[in-house]
Amino acid sequence: MKKKLVAAMMVAVMTAGMALPVSAADTAPISQTVSVAYGEDSTFTLTIPATVTLSENAGATATVGLDAINVSTTEKVQISVTGGISDGKVTLTDINDSSNTCSSTVSLTEGDEGLASDAVIAEFTMESHPLTAALYFTALGNVPAGTYSGQMTYQASIVSTADAGATGE
Questions:
Q1: Does residue 167 register a pLDDT over 50?
Q2: End-to-end CA distance of the chain
Q3: Of the chain's two ends, which shows fewer C-beta atoms within 10 Å, N or C?
Q4: Residue 148, exposed/middle/buried by CB under 10 A (0-12, 13-18, 19+)?
Q5: How are strands ordered across the β-sheet holding 120-124?
Q6: Which pLDDT score is estimated for 12?
Q7: What Cα–Cα distance (Å) separates residue 128 from each residue in 39, 73, 74?
């Protein structure tokens, strides 16, 4: 009886082997591709002075720039002065007498001509070092006593490296 049982099992195993055909395609390696990606938006951190203190007798220097930059190889950060400059000068007004004003010429090089309105004062790419540019202010000259105040507005933006620009790199 044991022989018949073993023989029946062997027949079943052989029959099952014939029912599961094997082809060359089943043993060939299978290839698939996977996409690998990275994406990050361009960023920067602008640094401007909170205050620039001017005097009658000596010029002053202010530094503008970036604390951090991460832009693509086809981009740069441009910094412009978009307000507060007229005919190359920043005007300060006495806070107690608005008819009393004084002015300082603002330039990119000490003793140079004043900045034009909306002038690009610096531009930086990922390869730029240092990430700063200087602005030079002339002495005020003889100014009556008082407390004077004025403002300049800066704008920084990411633009194409193909865009014409600037001076401060």
A1: no
A2: 97
A3: N
A4: buried
A5: 120-124, 75-83, 153-160
A6: 57
A7: 22, 12, 14
All structural domains of the chain with their residue ranges: 43-160
Fold of 43-160: Immunoglobulin-like (2.60.40)
The answer to whether 106 and 136 are in contact (CB under 8 A) is yes
Instruction: State the residue for tokens 């441009």.
Output: 78
- Sign, CA dihedral 17-18-19-25, equals positive
Predicted confidence at residue 28, as pLDDT, reads 82
CB 49 within 8 A of CB 151: no
* Mean of pLDDT values over 50-56: 95
The 3-state secondary structure of 34-91, one letter per residue? CCCCCCCCCEEEEECCCCCCCCCCCCEEEEEEEEEEECCCCEEEEEEEEECEECEEEE
The candidate with the shortest Cα–Cα distance to 85, out of 115, 110, 125, is: 115
